[in-house]
Each structure stands twice: as structure tokens, then as C-alpha cells.
Amino acid sequence: FATDETANKLSAPFPACLHQAPMLLPSDDTALRRSLDSWFKKANILPSIVAEFHDSALMKVFGRESAGIFPAPSVVEDEVCREYGVRVIGSTEEIKESFYAITVERKLNHPIVMTLVEEARTGLFGKKLKD
After folding, report:
1. Which of 36, 38, 70, 120 is the most exposed place for a label (fewest CB within 10 A)?
2. Closest CA to 25 of 13, 12, 16, 35
3. What does the DSSP 8-state code read for residue 76?
4. Domain check: are 106 and 67 in the same one?
5. How far is it, in rounded angstroms, from Cα 121 to Cα 131?
6. Kindly report the CA angle at 86 between 27 and 8, in degrees rounded to 5?
7. Residue 8 pLDDT class (50, 70, 90 cuts)
């Protein structure tokens, strides 16, 4: 994701445009960052890391201010674009992010939790998820 200002400076198609591009990334102690680093290496991309974040919302705020390109799950791309005034510059199916609902109960009984789980199974934010 990037603002128009940042995206317009990119000279190559995705993903090559990320090489030496200013990047805002999750901190290196996260699974997402390890996946990104592995993908960058596989694609021969050496990003210019502007900042690393523990807080993805803060990373998006910096992105909104044209500080760099940032990753976010495609399942929330419409919301990210709308909320932060950015656009998608590319996507890949090679990086996956997991989301978990953790409960102390063996069986889900709470109606709200059951609704959340069902929504995630059938299409989080209106997009079909893969099992």
C-alpha cells in the first residue's frame, strides 16, 4: 500500500518496484516480517527500510503521510485504502497471515464469539477465505 505521491515515484512493475523503495515494515520479531524478508530474498528485492513498527496502525499512519510503502492483509484492503488514503500497489499469494480466536472453553458457546468465527469462516469483510 502507498499514497499516490509515493506510488508515482515507483518506476517498475510490482514486485520489482519494491527494490530500494522506502518501506515501512513490521518489527523483525514478528512472523509477518520473517515471511516478508523471505519473500524479498526469493524475489531479489532489497527494500530501503525507513522504519519498523510493533503497531500496524501506527505503520499505516506513517504510510498515510507518505513515509513509505507498507504491507497489510488483502482481506482488509478496501478499509485500509479508505481509512488511510492509500492504494494497492501489488499483492502476492505467497505471504500468509494467520488470525486466531482463543478461548478457555473447549466448545464455543458465546453468541458473539460464534458469530465472529462463522463470519471468518464464510468471508471476513465480504471476501471468501480459504480453509
Report:
1. 38
2. 35
3. G
4. no
5. 8
6. 100
7. very high
Inter-residue contact 24 to 68 (CB < 8 Å)? yes
53 and 110 both lie in a single domain: no
Residue type at 107 in one-letter notation: K
pLDDT, tens digit (0-9, with 9 covering 90-100), for 62-121: 999 999 999 999 888 999 999 999 999 999 999 987 767 677 777 878 888 788 777 777
Q: Are 105 and 35 in contact (CB under 8 A)?
A: no
For residue 17, CA distances in Å to 1, 9, 47, 129 come to 12, 9, 9, 28
Please enumerate in sequence order all residues whose Cβ is within 8 A of that of 33, keeping only pairs 6 or more positions apart, or say none.
25, 26, 27, 52
41 & 73 share domain: yes
Domain range holding 105? 99-131
Give the distance from CA 13 to its chain's centroid: 19
Q: Which of 37, 36, 23 is nearest to 67 (CA)?
A: 23
44 and 15, same domain (yes or no)? yes
Residues 14 and 78 in one domain: yes
- Report the number of distinct structural domains present in the chain: 2
